[in-house]
Design brief:
Chain A is of the alpha+beta class. Chain A is built from nine helices and 20 strands. Chain A has two domains: 240 residues, 3-Layer(aba) Sandwich (Rossmann fold); 108 residues, Beta Barrel (OB fold (Dihydrolipoamide Acetyltransferase, E2P)). In chain A, the strands form four sheets. Chain A has a six-stranded mixed beta sheet, sandwiched between helices. In chain A, helix 3 packs across helix 4 and helix 4 crosses helix 5. The radius of gyration of chain A is 25 Å and the shape is elongated. Chain B is an all-alpha fold. Chain B has one domain: MetI-like (MetI-like fold, Orthogonal Bundle). The longest helix of chain B is centred in the last third of the chain and has 38 residues. Chain B is globular, with a radius of gyration of 24 Å. The chains are: A alpha+beta, B mainly alpha. The interface between A and B is medium-sized, with 36 and 21 residues.
């Protein structure tokens, strides 16, 4: 779509935007020297969906976003927006709004001019630009700061202006590249809610890159966990947490403890109890096995002849996390903080499995 | 030596840095040290200028007189030399900016590892003597170019490169150019719009400083202009020195003052432009 054609669609009032665009990443490959940043990444994003790309540093999530934005060209694979292949379309013609990790406001322009910049490029009249920029600044709660320059705004305010600027052009897709990572915890939490509310209200397809699992799980409709340039699992936050499909996802999302298990007739024996394997027999790899246990999958009781010993305690508010050493493994267990006084360091405890099934994986060799 | 004694007072490395405030005696020593260094530096710069000013305000008998200054406007060839220098300075500034601004931005964006090489390349004009440079250029330049004074502008671009590159490099270093460019492009701006509306306005201070340095360099360059047989202001001053040293020194002092005034004017114009720009935006 040309800028003039885009300009024609910008007359839509805020809050009444068209449904977001469907996006498909189709077998994307991108290498930098000998590093394969994207290794056949495929992902379907529904119109109006908020999807988070989550993964450790170097997993390829930012590269995926940059390929989608048009700042990087894939070595192979396609990017489809509304079914059209935009892989070779330059960034300035992709009609995607982006908010960056670092503050990206133009220092020579005030907040209003920053927001109106994209509209000016689309040859909107001055009155329309001013009114539109004003509406968007009001939307992000900064109408009083319209005439301030970036250096006069706080980090959180700058990111909100950047968000308004990205939304001003009514992009087909909104791209958020760790926009909260430079902010302090309180502002981050506020802006997180504000972004999510705006996204829902405008129904805009949004791709959000983060390495913070709490952000991803609390904001996204679906989370794509990435590892070594591929999507390990794409699922809703509850499914991702409760039913991780791989050991990597189980260990990266939430907290897991790895403990050696033996096969038995029902599945595996964990902590002396028989348990089913999540995913059935087909999910059991050959060879020695480990189970991955969430803190809430295990209960601890004080027992003078218990096999476990409390090695460490962390107060988390309503609950306290214990690290219990047992049979060469360390298992994390959550107990209610009101009961935590019973679990002094060195206390002998007995652990029991409370989950119905467990995720098993190949045993990690002891280093 | 006094200088060494004062630096000892300023930088006492034997004492930890994060100690309590210095005692009264030590504070006085530091103040004296600073004062002595500043006085020496000021004397180093100001004494030659004072001597030249004094000489330019004397008649041939060594008495104070304004006659050398009063005689300046009637000196033959001075006006044309001054305007030739000014034309060369303008053309040099334009050429330098056209060449260096896109180059430095490109290196910052696409070839950041090349910055070290650029540092070395752009220092070369300082290492190579101007006489070598101009003789080489005169040897290979086509006749039509040799017969034009603007050949000097082409060579001055090379001379100005170390100063202009460093000024622009520092200006760009203070910006997150990559993010600004990507933000601009994601909003629909092409390369030209991004450069013109986003990068260049944020480089104004660096561009101004680069222009000022280029102007000062061209207005004071003698060797190349003399060898290329063009009578620029510095060449005129040296030539006229044989006729009347008082007047030529007075012209040199005036050109120095004029350059300062010009630079002050450019800086104030930029400041008032910034203020007006902000007021307009605010209204």
């Amino acid at each position: 779509m040309t800028l003039t054609q885009q300009a024609a669609t910008i007359a839509t009032p805020l809050g009444a935007l068209n449904a977001g665009a469907p996006v498909t990443l189709d077998r994307l490959v991108r290498t930098f020297g000998s590093t394969r940043a994207l290794d056949g990444l495929s992902l379907d994003i529904a119109p109006g969906e908020f999807i988070a790309l989550l993964g450790p540093s170097g997993c390829g999530k930012t590269t995926a976003l940059r390929v989608l934005a048009g700042f990087e060209q894939p070595d192979s694979g396609r990017v489809l927006v509304r079914g059209s292949d935009v892989s070779s379309v330059p960034a300035q013609h992709r009609d995607m709004g982006m908010v960056f990790q670092s503050y990206s406001l133009f220092p020579n322009m005030n907040a209003r001019d920053n927001v109106a910049f994209g509209l000016q490029l689309r040859r909107q009249r001055s009155a329309v630009r001013k009114s539109r920029a004003g509406e968007l600044l009001e939307l992000v709660g900064l109408s009083e700061h319209a005439l301030k320059f970036p250096h006069q705004l706080s980090g959180g305010q700058q990111q909100r202006v950047a968000l308004a600027r990205a939304l001003a052009i009514e992009p087909q897709v909104l791209l958020l590249d760790e926009p909260l990572s430079a902010l302090d915890a309180k502002v981050r939490a506020e802006l997180r809610d504000q972004i999510r509310e705006l996204q829902r209200r405008l129904n805009i397809t949004t791709v959000f890159v983060t390495h913070d699992q709490e952000e991803a799980l609390s904001m996204a409709d679906r989370v794509c966990v990435m590892n070594q340039g591929r999507a390990e699992q794409v699922a809703t936050p509850p499914v991702l947490y409760a039913q991780p499909s791989t050991a990597f996802v189980a260990e990266f999302v939430g907290v897991s403890s790895r403990v050696g298990v033996e096969r038995d007739h029902a599945g595996v024996t964990v902590l002396g109890q028989s348990a089913r394997v999540r995913g059935g027999e087909a999910a059991v790899p050959a060879g020695p096995l480990d189970a991955l246990l969430r803190p809430e999958d295990v209960t601890a009781t004080v027992a003078r002849d218990g096999l476990g010993v409390v090695l460490h305690r962390s107060f988390l508010g309503a609950s306290t996390r214990l690290e219990v050493g047992i049979g060469g493994s360390t298992i994390k267990v959550d107990v209610r903080s009101v009961d935590s006084e019973d679990f002094e360091l060195g206390t002998r405890v007995e652990l029991a499995l409370s989950a119905r099934d467990v995720l098993v994986t190949e045993r990690r060799p002891v280093v | 030596m006094a200088a060494l004694a004062t630096t000892e007072g300023l930088f006492d490395f034997d004492e930890p840095l994060a100690t309590a405030a210095p005692s009264g005696g030590r504070r006085r020593r530091i103040r004296w040290g600073r004062g002595a260094i500043l006085t020496l530096a000021a004397a180093y710069f100001l004494l030659p200028m004072y001597a030249a000013l004094k000489f330019s305000l004397q008649d041939i008998n060594g008495h104070f007189s304004l006659s050398p200054v009063a005689a300046i406007p009637s000196q033959p060839g001075l006006g044309s030399a001054f305007f030739l220098s000014l034309r060369l300075a303008t053309v040099t500034m334009v050429l330098t900016m056209l060449l260096m601004v896109p180059t430095v931005i490109y290196v910052h964006l696409k070839l950041p590892r090349f910055r070290r090489v650029m540092d070395v390349i752009t220092i070369m004009p300082i290492v190579i003597p101007p006489i070598v440079l101009i003789l080489g250029v005169l040897h290979v330049a086509p006749l039509w170019l040799k017969s034009s004074p603007y050949l000097l502008s082409l060579v001055y671009v090379i001379l100005a490169m170390p100063f202009v590159y460093r000024s622009l490099d520092a200006g760009l270093g203070a910006l997150d150019v990559k993010t600004l460019v990507e933000a601009s492009r994601s909003l629909g701006a092409g390369w030209i719009a991004t450069m013109w509306r986003v990068i260049v306005p944020n480089l104004r201070a660096a561009l101004l400083s680069a222009s000022v340095l280029t102007l000062a360099l061209v207005l004071g360059e003698f060797t190349m202009a003399s060898l290329d047989l063009w009578e620029t202001l510095p060449v005129w001053i040296v030539d006229f020195d044989q006729t009347n040293a008082h007047i030529s020194t007075a012209v040199a002092m005036l050109s120095l003052i004029a350059t300062w005034l010009l630079l002050t004017l450019i800086v104030s114009l930029d400041r008032s432009h910034s203020r007006r720009h902000r007021r307009n935006r605010a209204s």
